[in-house]
Amino acid sequence: METVAGSARSPSPTRRTSAPRKRGDDTRARIIEETVHCILEEGFGAATAKHVAERAGVTWGVIQYHFGDRNGLLMAVVDDGVAELVSSLSAVEVGELGLTQRIEAVVDTAWRCYASPTSLAAFEILQATRGGLGEQSHTHLLQANSAISRLGRLVSDDPADAGVAEVIWAALRGIILAQMIVGGTFDWQAERRVLIEMVSHYLQRDRR
Length: 208
Hints:
Elements: H1 19-42, H2 49-56, H3 60-67, H4 70-91, H5 99-115, H6 117-129, H7 135-155, H8 164-182, H9 189-203
């Protein structure tokens, strides 16, 4: 008896899909985003797991699944904020720009990093918890400080100028604080110009 070729076929392999994982990633990202907005709009104290769950349209069980508890959720915001900051600060290049142009690039990059909603929320969490999130939060601060120091070396590699980046960072932090108190955004171009001129004057002190 002749057997028809291909009449007995093995079952097709099960098709794998990344859709469930993508939905999970999207949910996790939405929860982190709502935590950031909650902290910036209502304050750190308002960012309870229950309230964030309500804002994100999920249950407490979903937050437990992705983050474990409130501290895990807060740490996830810090993870994202510091990673964003370090990545942005590390990517800036000044090439053969003149001194004033280098300072402008550094100031503008630092401003964009600091003014980012996720970075603002991350720093507010670190300040409010005072290291209560464990060793990882200390590691993040070291990473941020290292990135800030690198930013300073872009405008001057003289060890005597090592504090320049810290001064820039502190000035921007003050402007951001004023913006948060006043509410909304405001034009900071006058402050930007003065900051750049001050740093330029300081770095040129030995060249005159």
